[in-house]
Amino acid sequence: MSINRLIDYIQAPEDTFDQYLQKAKEHDFRCVFANRFEFEQARDYLLDSDVIVAGYCDFPNGEESVEAQLADFEDQYRVGFREIEGILNQHAVEHRLYDYLERQMTEIALFCRDRHIDAKIIIETCKMDEECLTRVCEIALACRPTCLKTSTGESFKGAELDKVKLMKSLLGDEVQIKAAGGIRTYQQAQEFLAAGASVLGASAAIQITQEQQALLGA
Fold this sequence. Notes:
Strand order of the largest sheet: 1-8-7-6-5-4-3-2
Order of helices and strands: EHEHEHEHHEHEHEHEH
Number of domains: 1
Structural class: alpha/beta
CATH superfamily: Aldolase class I
């Protein structure tokens, strides 16, 4: 498979939203991101493509309460998003408040499943040791969000191969894994896919796809 269809494209700071959409459509990436005010523009521009328009909540800080984040998900759903990324409360992650994390992930997963929304939960693996990551994956196996995403790309470290491998060993095929943060080359992308990720997040998506095309002689 061409790797572009496995990449959620992150907008480059120098690009306008129009340029971002144009590049995503030209390269046929899996997904772009929009806020509630950009949704209709993105949806209409990408209507004749396979590019998904995804939303996001509480990004990148992860400060909201469960109730506030659910309200954000509801707002995104009413706007029209059917794929939404939310981030685990980072205070709860840093202080290992597993009961809170279980309630948050479970309520988001149920909310999204009832409305046929793909729920991608950002967990920020750089703040987790093996024990914490294992507990979070066990929670995910119980409540089944669509996907766990390694990183916001805004913290002190992005995706790590050993942690993606651990996630895959625990989640199997029951919950997808999205690796994001610091993936800038086709070789890196291939390594994360081999480790168990099924989706990648990258602002260097165009470079990655061009590297694949060069290697394949396309």
